[in-house]
Specification:
There is one protein chain. With about 400 residues, the chain is α/β, with parallel strands linked by helices. The protein has two domains: about 250 residues, Type I PLP-dependent aspartate aminotransferase-like (Major domain) (Aspartate Aminotransferase, domain 2), CATH 3.40.640.10; about 140 residues, Aspartate Aminotransferase, domain 1. About 40% of the residues lie in helices and about 15% in strands. It has 14 helices and twelve strands. The protein has a seven-stranded mixed beta sheet with strand order 1-7-6-5-4-2-3, with helices on both faces. The protein has a five-stranded mixed beta sheet with strand order 8-9-12-11-10. The longest helix is centred in the C-terminal third of the chain and has 19 residues. The N and C termini lie far apart (about 65 Å). This is O-succinylhomoserine sulfhydrylase. Homotetramer.
Length: about 400
């Protein structure tokens, strides 16, 4: 028995578990994993029709696989988009977006505080092909309006941003993009569709590193782009030719992750809120970046366009790099890793890891200081997380 899940008729929690799945003649209850590189055609005529896109059916696993397609359908339903294209990583999703929609002579407007590899992609690699990128403060709309022109083809931003948790008014950026004939792409990694749906606020494209919260347990790499059928046809065409493809196994893992996404995000948000409030009261801490705090400059905006404030925060400590490293080295069981969105709480020093390949000038523009620490708050006991961080903070005084 099959049933078409119309996304408009069901809540997100139901879509995350049921959307897109049609049982085969075997009647399997769990989504199957299709481990095959190719498919058998009914006839030479059928093969030709499928290759031309005139007939439905899988063609080659580089760009058509039933397990991957199911993950794409489910994510698109959760984001309120028409279609999604899954990729081998989050950075592959951004690369595929660039290659689909940018040409030599085009210009990109990008927020200054994005993930370090995103900056590297635009500055080092897209620049080789004649694409110019302007990096602008996320909160200075006047600067974005002044920089936008007929050459602008893509606006790219994270909200909340990594790692300073700055918030962008998605609707305002969408209006600016439409005014100059550009697309707005929003990296929704920190919030996921459980907390924020950028397409509903006017964005054209949503970018995901599925490696993070969509998986939720740090197991596999993957990414995705979500948008209209027409735009995703362009992204999928690049995927078909160049092959930064998500594997069926990884797609199956992400499907399992989506089933508990809403539940996990609720706990991530609650723990992050409690930790942010606690850090704000510690003598060794000079500032806390988390939109859930009432004094955060983006608090009201985040509350308006998100249903929760997310599970990632950052904070600065007294002193410089030595103090930040002393705190990180002083924790006992928090995971020192650059990944985020994991059930396990992770801690990292952005200036020497995630943003370490940026120039000093680029780090300064992004607000990445030597005394900044990023925490991806996991699902453990909040008290236990606080106790371990207290050990780390005490090492600053000891040093």
């Amino acid at each position: 028995m099959s049933f078409e899940f119309d996304p408009s008729q069901f809540d997100a929690e139901t879509l995350a578990i049921r959307a897109g799945f049609e049982r085969s003649q075997n009647g399997e209850h769990s989504e199957p994993m299709y481990l095959t590189s190719s498919y058998i055609f009914d006839s030479a005529e059928d093969a030709a029709s499928r290759f031309r896109g005139e007939a439905e059916g899988p063609v080659y696993a580089r760009y058509t696989n039933p397990t991957v397609n199911l993950f794409e359908s489910r994510l698109a339903a959760l984001e309120g988009g028409e279609e999604a294209v899954a990729t081998s990583s989050g950075m592959a999703a951004i690369l595929s977006t660039c290659m689909a929609f940018l040409s030599a002579g085009d210009e990109v407007l990008c927020s200054a505080d994005v993930f370090g590899s995103t900056t590297g992609l635009f500055s080092k690699y897209m620049a080789k092909f004649g694409v110019k990128t302007h990096y602008l403060p996320l909160g200075d709309m006047g600067a974005w309006e002044a920089a936008a022109n007929e050459k602008t083809k893509l606006l790219f931003l994270e909200t909340p941003s990594n790692p300073l948790c700055r918030i962008a008014d998605i609707r305002a950026f969408a209006n600016l993009a439409k005014g100059v004939g550009a697309r707005l792409a929003v990296d929704n990694c920190f919030c996921t569709p459980a907390l924020q749906q950028p397409l509903l606020h006017g964005a054209d494209l949503v970018i995901h590193s599925a490696t993070k919260y969509l998986d939720g347990q740090g197991r596999t790499l993957g990414g995705a782009v979500v948008g209209t059928h027409a735009d995703m046809a362009e992204v999928r065409a690049f995927l078909r030719t160049c092959g930064p493809t998500m594997s069926p196994f990884n797609a199956w893992v992400f499907l399992k992750g989506l089933e508990t996404l809403s539940l996990r995000m609720e706990r991530h948000c609650a723990n992050a809120q409690g930790l942010a409030e606690w850090l704000s009261q510690q003598d060794e801490v000079t500032s806390v970046n988390y939109a859930g705090l009432a004094d955060h400059p983006g608090h009201a905006l985040a509350a308006a366009q998100q249903s929760g404030f997310g599970g990632v925060l950052s904070f600065t400590v007294k002193g410089g790099r030595e103090s930040a490293w002393a705190c990180i080295n002083g924790v006992r069981w928090l995971s020192l890793t650059a990944n985020l969105g994991d059930a396990k709480t992770t801690i990292v020093h952005p200036a020497t890891t995630t943003h370490g390949r940026l120039s000093d000038q680029e780090r300064d523009a992004a607000g990445i200081t030597e005394n900044l620490i990023r925490i991806s708050v996991g699902l453990e006991s909040l008290k236990d997380i606080q106790d371990d961080l207290r050990r780390g903070l005490s090492c600053i005084l000891a040093g």
